[in-house]
Amino acid sequence: MRQYENLVRTIADQILKGDVAVGSKLPSERATAQKFVVSRSTVRRAWRELESLGYVTWSNQSTPVVVRPLESTLRAERSPVGRLAETLSPTFLGDLMQAAVSSARYNFEIGMPDPELLPVQDFQQILRELFSYPSREVFGYSPTLGLERARRAISEEFLTRRGVSMSPNNILVTAGSLQGLNLLTRLWVRPGDVILTESPTFAGALHIFRSHGAQILGIPIDASGINVDILESLTLGKNPRFLYIQPVGQNPTGVTLSPERRLKLLHWAQKSHIPIVEDDAYGFLSDQPNPPLAADRRQIPLVYLNTFSKILAPGIRVGFLAAPADLIRQLVALKQLSDLHTGTLSQLVAEGWLRQGRVDTHIQRARTIYKGRLKLATRLIKQVTRLTPFAEPDHGFYLFAKLPPGQMAQSLHAKAAQRDVLFAPGNPFSPDGQLFGNWIRLAVGAQPSAQIETGLRRLGRLLDDVTDGSSGSPRRTIKLLRS
Ligand SMILES: Cc1ncc(COP(=O)(O)O)c(C=O)c1O
Predict the structure, then answer these.
(1) Distance, CA of 105 to CA of 451 (rounded, Å)
(2) Which of 53, 102, 292, 441 could in theory staple to 252 by disulfide, Cβ–Cβ 3.0 to 4.6 A?
(3) pTM for this predicted structure
(4) Same domain (yes/no): 348, 388
């Protein structure tokens, strides 16, 4: 760093810390030059810079006077959300979004559809048609609730395929389903309120809940989904605000709630009156009749979230929330404050896709391809790595797997990245932030079979390299005998 830059930083720090009060003069040019052993022209240059950064005013003839620095005025720490934001780790979601554009060859970090499956020709045709509409209808503002035609298409072409009957009036179109979850949490949750989740669960949801100051109580899951018996006993006397759950193809484990557990959970909801927030992001990827909880006809308090991000394209940022009309009205008021409405063009693209008549073919193809990739990855994980899978899901994008003893995901992540392999470390999926440090999530959906094979072999070799040779595992023994 150059001398004057050093000086700028030192003086700016003093001002920010309050060591030099707003309204007072800085020490003279000569005193500053002597103190920092720099020339007087360096001092003047630093003053000019401090003025342009808004720390001082300086007339050139006199000594600069300290003004309220812009930087401290712009800091958000005075609001509770600002303070929480400082304690949250924004890096996980940030890293994940960065991974979406990474050029790593074996990218198992982010869960998104294979871009090769994007129905490009359908999109081209939809966009061509949209350009023939009056531009106001495509590029203008639109209602906060969502375009009527988009909500109608979601009701008729999306929700009915999931067995859910919901009027367009009960649907709020959001900028991705994560926005819906954020709006709902903002409306329902005060700092200190308890939210129930599966453990592990989607890190983005946990991030939102924490940002609102919620206490998160994780309920263990196994290969059949959430443990409803524990749910009942753990929540006694806790007055939780809601249960956030992904019943089908859960992120990060790929687990789907078994029919028996599903029934038990529905009974629990009926009895407890604790609202369920159902995130059905991966529901379409199941080829089994795994209807969402929202398809059940009994009366339970439930809000349903879904998205076009996993079945079509995450970049269009279209999701939705389905709920009773009163709640939708309140959420609309909040969404207005956030972004006025979801992108008009994006909504029309989503609607166009739902109406063009090839939704079932697309879904069927996606299911088959992802299922094959999951199967391959599950077999390889057992054959060529020392990982232990949490479950063996047959739909969705994800495998969640435990590292060999002594390994931690965070440090392995950096080493794997050096070998062009990316995965998501498990800890951010922990409701209390304490668990799953020795687990990783592999999103295999978007990777062709050849990449899965090579990537997992690379990961396997890395684990061999970093694992203590004395572990005596069968794979190690075979390797030693061969060498
Ligand atoms: C369970 C779950 N819900 C919601 C989302 C976010 O979806 P969107 O892109 O619609 O905000 C994700 C993305 O990974 C997810 O895994």
Answers:
(1) 8
(2) 441
(3) 0.84
(4) no
